[in-house]
Amino acid sequence: MLERKLIDTAQVPGGAELQLISHGRDHMITLERNELMSTRMQFSEEQLAELTIDRLTAPKPNMLIGGYGMGFTLRAALARLGADVKVVVAELMPEIIEWAHGPMAGVADGCLDDPRVSLRMGDVGEAIRQANAEYDAILLDVDNGPDGLVREDNDGLYSAAGLQAAKRALRPGGVLAIWS
Asked: 8 to each of 18, 30, 98, 153, how far by Cα in Å?
């Protein structure tokens, strides 16, 4: 019987501790007793990208993905988008990126090194507030729905002010997609 093995931990600013766990060939990231993501289940993260891209009208979209996680949303977006796109990934936790280059490098499959990708370390909310009609799509996968599960500060993303900021950050006809 395969045992779960703790690989590493990371403290969420203003939140609890994330754990990277291996279970045989699979990996999972947990928050306390909640499994946030796993290499066994990635369809919904891929669909976040797929369904958003289906709605885009810009020929060379500029996208913001909030939360790298295990990179499923990013890889699905890159697989569908052409060479002339720009994808910004905002990730709060440096350890998540370290895991993508370390114990989960096989899962990441080099997607963070794709020339279409820019990595922005920090709060996606700040990236949204600083943008003005910059993005054709904003994809948020930072919680398990429109509620600040990972950290309380994320509640601001889903508030009236947070949604207004997202609207200002989007170009006309832009798409805001929230994993839930």
From this structure: 8, 11, 10, 24
